[in-house]
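User: I need a structural model of Response regulator transcription factor from Clostridium frigoriphilum for a docking pre-check later this week. Nothing fancy, just the predicted structure tokens so I can convert them on my end. Input:
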Amino acid sequence: MDGKIKILVVDDEQKVLNVIKAYLIKEGFEVLTSMDGEDALNIFKNEPIHLIILDLMLPKMSGEDVCNKIRATSSVPIIMLTAKAEEDNKIDGLAIGADDYITKPFSNRELVSRVKAIIRRTYRDNNPLAELLIINNGDLEINIDKKIIKKQGKTIILTSNEFKILIALLTNPGQVFSREQLVHKSFGLDYDGFDRTVDTHIKNIRYKIEDDSKNPKYIISIYGMGYKFQG
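Assistant: Understood. Predicted structure tokens for Response regulator transcription factor:
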């Protein structure tokens, strides 16, 4: 992941937004804010958000509805904020997809501590954990450990070699690989296959993950050099 962790804070109280934002910026995070549910969804759709702090009581669209809509396409971590302290409300919040839950009034230091804990669980050394990669707000989801890939929520099937090539590319975004480098990166130095078969694998991967395989947005050909992943 390039750059800072970007956090979206959603609350209908400007004072609360200002205080949380100040604490998070002090800790080195980039912070966006919103005061209603509809605006929060628009920001999420257009920005690479890495964590959301979400109040339940919002105008235009409730926090529960915002959470449900986000969970339909993304596994981005969500911390629920609410004045409700009842145990049932906490359970309901976690049931609809929240990763953590904190009631008002709360200590800003405690909130920052919980943010950091979730960031550590979800991201390692400022890079996504191998367990799950989410690209373009959920257009692609890749679970590396389980070798499951979803395109707009639908599971797609790659062969073992196709999967290895895709992982080699997407875990090094922007880096151009020659065919020979992709073979070594994907299969090891002792692989005795012909490196031109990479072209066939790339063609098949594009057919499965691109909206238009003839005009790819993820796996890009660099003339005379090889391929790179962008997205």
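Before docking, keep this in mind: The CA atoms of residues 218 and 231 lie 6 Å apart.
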